[in-house]
Amino acid sequence: MSCPVFPKPAKSKASLWKVFFTKRHSWLDALYERSYGMKMGEYKLPGLTLYMVNQPELVRNVMVQNMANFPKNQMLGDILEPLLGESIFTTNGEQWQKQRDMLDPAFKHARVQQVFGLMQNAAQDMLARLKNHQPGQDIDPEMTFVTADIIFRTIMSAKLNEAQANRILEAFVRFQAESPKLALKKMFRLPGFMQRGASERQRMAAAKEIRGTIEDIIRPRYQQAEAARAGCPNARAELENQQDILSSLLLTTDQSTGQPFNFNEIVDQISMLFLAGHETTASSLTWSLYLLALHPQVQQDAYEEVARVLAEQPMSVAAIRKMVLVRDVFREALRLYPPVGFLSRECAHATEMRDKKMKAGSTVMVSPWLIHRHKDYWHNPHSFDPYRFTSKELKTPLSKSYLPFGAGPRVCIGAAFAQQESSLILASILQHYHISMPQGFEPQPVGRLTIRSENGLQLILTPRNKQEP
Ligand code: HEM
Fold this sequence. Notes:
The longest helix is centred in the middle third of the chain and has 32 residues, at 198-229. The chain has one domain (16-463): CATH 1.10.630.10. It is globular, with a radius of gyration of 22 Å. The protein is 52% helix and 9% strand. By secondary structure, the protein is an alpha+beta fold. α6 runs parallel beside α18. It has a 4-stranded mixed β-sheet with strand order 1-2-7-4. The chain has a 3-stranded antiparallel β-sheet with strand order 3-11-8. The site of protoporphyrin IX containing FE has 22 residues, from α12 and α18.
């Protein structure tokens, strides 16, 4: 199998100031050759020490065994706060546990299967839009649209119209572009006034725009829930009839206090689900399509698998489950281009790891990007090989070396949801189109909030029924 694109690492570590001034637009550019083989790295920044933890045993220590000593990083919380408020993605301790308990029921397998029909409607609309796809047009905006549309339909029963979508997605692009700049300023401990320039104002305005759209959709539903709680039987029946995740959140209560989420808490959680749920999935779908375009034989095998399954039954949860290769193409895209390339934690109390004495307050990074490409854990780590997941020759068990959805109690709540929608979208595209790239085009991976292609993904979609025999 050939080797898909990844940023060539520098021979050696860059100086701190070089990182600050030249690597701000992508985390991946700050990596160097040794990063891809090390078990644990230490980086000293002014006023902050950062540890990169790449060894499965150490990862388990951080994410599972001593999770209480490695809470989510406050810096990440501060960066995402304008958009996500105090949502489950950034909270810790009791507050996080309470939120997790309240969100869990909405993401149970049965509930995720229930929303398959809504996902399928969004996939059908995507196929209708793809009829206008021009040869060589960037597919990334469509993957962002369809995944955002799925979130809106399944979480809020709202269909995303094009004007709303453009406004919200464009605001998110601005938010995402400015965020790494703030992260670096925080890491380098620049004073507060230097963190509040034009870039920060743009970020805040973008976050306000996104939250405003979400608040407008949630407000009438929240009022309905309040009426239900006040005893209005119609309001309760209407709420229960809605199969979306918002109604599950509106109906759920904290087990210890019996209290429901308040309006701001619901907006925080839904904004977070919007961000965590569409950006990550869009990224991995775009990379999956790139990998399929680059590997025509795998694409042909996956197409035949889809055609075989759909000859026997209509598109459904059961049909998707039979498409093992489609699932594994997606899994391999998540290995090579994990959307969340770095998971950030803080060391709450001083501790020791390998030969390093870690002070309280230091930053700890677990990197799916590096672990998934580590030569000690994978055969041909930089190559695309979706068949590796069904072969018996994995170098290390997946539970140790594969963590696109994180690990431990804070593992992604939406993993089953993401897998279901991604298989559906990939199968729908494979069923109707042959996928290729214009000659000479190569996507450029950059690490921002997620790992995306800086120049998008130019694709040629040839309808299957118009292909030469
Ligand atoms: C391919 C798609 C996705 C990927 C790769 C992904 C990845 C991740 C990762 C790595 C984490 C853990 C972060 C950490 O430990 O620091 C996470 C957490 C989370 N994800 Fe996802 N995610 C995806 C899709 C989704 C979807 C579709 C949803 C919801 C609709 C979702 C909701 C969440 C939530 C709520 C958390 C926080 C869980 C907690 O802290 O308890 N994600 N995700």
